[in-house]
Design a protein that fits this description.
about 140 residues; 7 helices
Length: about 140
Amino acid sequence: MTSLTKKDYPLGQKRPDLVYTPKDKSYNDLTLDAALNGEITKDDLRISPKTLEMHAEISDSLGRTQLAKNFRRAAEMINISDARILEIYNALRPNRSTKEELLMIADELEKDYSAKENAELIREAADVYERRGSLKKSEE
């Protein structure tokens, strides 16, 4: 695959040949007629990790490294259930989790979902919360 840059954004308009759903349906196949004929499911309307990675590549080409990291974290989260994502979100609220609990979540993300970028972010949050006194006190 060629390197993607600003000229390729938005992908749906400028490079629809590269965009596929998580079920490998082409972006160009997502039409109103296909929907009316029952050829499209709700899973066909979700973004794929590959598309998010392409957006990260474009962001990198623009020097927007933080945005690229956000896209990569989003790509990693595709295979995590919405319910688990909400649990993790709530665990990240100040004073909701101990450092050990946050580190266990980071390990889970890395081991169970290969979500290394997200695991790194959780570990970083645990350290910041520790410095700021925003961790839940251990129940001894």
